[in-house]
Amino acid sequence: MHKEFLMGNEAIGKAAVAAGVNVVAGYPGTPSTEVLETIAKENDGSIYVEWSVNEKAAMEVAAGASYSGARTLVTMKQVGLNVASDPLMSLEYVGVEGGMVILVADDPGPISSQTEQDTRTFAEYSKVPCFDPSDAKEAYEMVFEAFELSEKYKTPVFMRPTTRVCHSYQSIDIRDYAEYVDHRPSGFVKDSSRWVIFPRLSFANHAKIEKRNLALGDELSDYARNSIIPGTVRKGIASQGISYANVKDLLANKEGEKPSLLKISTPFPFPEKLALKFLQGVDEVLVIEELDPYIERHLLYVCGKYNLNVKISGKLTGSVQFSGENMPLKVQEYVSVFMGWKTEALPSIETPELPVRPPVLCAGCPHRASFYAVKRAMKGQETIFAGDIGCYTLGNAMPLDMVDTCLCMGAGLGIAQGVGRVKPDTKCFAFVGDSTFFASAITGVVNAVYNQADMTLIVLDNSTTAMTGHQPHPGTGKTMMGEFTDKIDIESILRGIGLETVVRQNPFELDAAVEVIKSVAAKPGVKAIIFEAPCAVLFKPETPYEVDANKCIDCRKCIREIGCPGVVIREGKVAIDEALCNGCGLCAQICPVGALGKAVRE
């Protein structure tokens, strides 16, 4: 063993490698992305690693490998689990052979997500065992235990870190190479009575799963990471994950009376016997957890089942907030009220007020040019701009104001079709990125063509998966294994689906782009424009632009029209921030007097 200072996601990735993982598949999504990327960096060539086109595909690839006796890991964020739920629900009924861990990173806050959904609730719904680490060190160690439990019970297993576990750092004891598990897949053994999910098999396996989970709940009551720390009064706090870490840190600095602590590290199957032991020693319990009142409901159930007169407080009683993170100061507040402590006697943390910095598209981002061109082309017409998940969601901000809807990945195509059916006179646009096109938009195009919709698809092709860290996708021609392959051409796909009008255009050629949009949008049926320009982060900036003070009339159109962070006001005058400007030239094409041009360098 040796020590390393690691981010939680790095720890999980290194643990998977040390645990003998054979196949890793996932789809990038904050806060999960670094797990797969760490494995790719650690890979000596013996592990197959892929960024799948979406989470459903990743789940199915891992399932096939697990059927063949391989240890597999699937990575995603909580909203990705929605996409992967179709194969997962059946997979739990079928079971696995090699250990299969499904890493789902939840995002309380939410910090970078559409939802605050709780994978613990999904685990209970899908009947899949779940591990819930409280810090990076525990996450590292849990990976080995999750693989072992998966193989023992022939079931996929959830690993549910949250953002603060994924992205916090800790000094961790890491296994040396000699201690790595050498897992050799046994290969696929044909057995249609096991691997083909007919109703009769599902019925039989459902009964087995329910019986197994009851027994597993008892077994997990003895699992070392589920624990009780006795207190000095008949009050208790039940917690999990990062909330438990915050509670423990708070109590470590407090002298005098202390409550008992119940830590739930395996929320499903719930360790009922351990919970019963905890409840028998207290009169009142405060439950602090993220996000659903999951532990709270289970403790209420145990009290009812065993006729215990224990008062349970938490989200359901309004004692703890229902949404958002349980940050240290919030935990301090909850515990202080519960214990009757004077707040001023507790350690306090003073934080400076931070400036408000709303997220914006980067200077030189091609999406800004694309949005602006569409906005200018459709001025005066009744339109709807259906957006999507990605950097381009930021097109909703003023002054662009070009995202009217955003639901989930790929949904803009269906929404544009739906609006068009209700208001046929509306010009309907759907925006989607190149990575998201492959992940979840193709079926929406098929649906539009098949059902004879009237809409314009705008594919924002910046040659990467920009929002989550520039991962490759089928259109980049490179895999996560470092192999070069043929690029899958978006235009060819669209034409194959049945689109007759598909136009490629550089969005930074503003006048030409505006004319293309007017021409394409005027045609009936489903048509597409692919705006092609690389992400501003992918290439070395061009010569920055500058303002000619002798020409500038201070109309500020360059600022009011596009909102580029590289165009600023200095001493009351328009100026270019050379540290941000990458020379895209969009602002110069907007200036009515030609006051913007490339900086002259001597």
Q: Could you name the key traits of this structure?
A:
single chain, 602 residues, alpha/beta, Rossmann fold, six-stranded parallel sheet, five-stranded mixed sheet, 20 helices, 37% helix
Task: Give a structural overview.
The chain is α/β, with parallel strands linked by helices and 602 residues long. It folds into four domains: 2-219, Rossmann fold; 227-345, Rossmann fold; 366-532, 3-Layer(aba) Sandwich (Rossmann fold); 545-598, Alpha-Beta Plaits, CATH 3.30.70. Helices cover 37% and strands 17% of the residues. It has 20 helices and 22 strands. It has a six-stranded parallel β-sheet with strand order 3-2-4-5-7-6, sandwiched between helices. α15 links the parallel β14 and β15 (427-433). α3 runs parallel beside α4 and α14 crosses α18. The radius of gyration is 27 Å and the shape is globular. The protein starts with a strand and ends with a strand. 46% of the residues are buried. The mean pLDDT is 92.
Explain the layout of strands and helices.
Elements lengths: L1 E6 H11 L4 E4 L6 H10 L5 E4 L3 H13 L4 E6 H17 L5 E6 L13 H8 L3 E2 L4 H18 L3 E3 L3 H4 L2 E6 L17 H4 L3 H22 L6 E3 L5 E5 L1 H12 L7 E4 L8 H8 L4 E5 L5 H12 L5 E3 L14 H12 L26 H12 L5 E4 L24 H12 L4 E7 H17 L4 E7 L28 H8 L4 E4 L4 H12 L4 E7 L12 E3 L9 H6 L4 E4 L2 E4 L9 H5 L5 E3 L4
Parallel strand pairs: 2-3, 2-4, 4-5, 5-7, 6-7, 10-11, 10-12, 12-13, 14-15, 15-16, 16-18, 17-18
Antiparallel strand pairs: 1-8, 9-11, 19-22, 20-21
